[in-house]
Amino acid sequence: MVDMYGTPHSPALHVVERYRSIDYETTQSAAERDEKDNLRLADERNDVAVAVDHNYKGNGLQLQFTVEDDGVFTMPWSATITYRRAANEWRENVCAENMHEYYYNKEADVPTADKPDF
Fold it and tell me: Which among 81, 83, 78 has a CA at the least distance from the CA of 66?
């Protein structure tokens, strides 16, 4: 099986997520490592860089996750991402459970299938 991004997985897929609030210094350190390694993060759909509020000196949010799937991967793998406060408003994402676009005050066109997937 593959997900909507083409990532393989089996029924044995097991994901462990850990969210935590981290202090300003740890957030800055993680951001510096990330910028050094990745140069610039961009939104894949719109190729727009996320503007960070550099004046904000509060906590960040860190997500650590581990993926285990004996049916696909030879060993577990993990990653960490650190979120900082955005300088502008977060864009609204429309999903099947909430089709209203508040910025445009209209209902979104959500794709529908002619028949169920399963």
Answer: 78
- Longest CA–CA separation in the chain, Å: 51
Residue 34 sits at φ, ψ, to 5 deg, of: -65, -45
Tell me the C-alpha distance between 75 and 59, whole Å: 33
Q: Where are the beta strands (DSSP E) in 1-118?
A: 14-22, 60-68, 77-83, 100-101, 106-107
Identify any residues that bridge with 18 across adjacent strands, giving them in sequence order.
64
**Residues sharing a CB contact under 8 Å with residue 21, sequence separation 6 or more, in sequence order:** 59, 60, 61, 62
**What tens digit of pLDDT does each residue of 54-84 get?**
888 999 999 999 999 998 999 999 998 888 8
pTM: 0.60
Query: Counting every residue, how long is the chain?
Result: 118
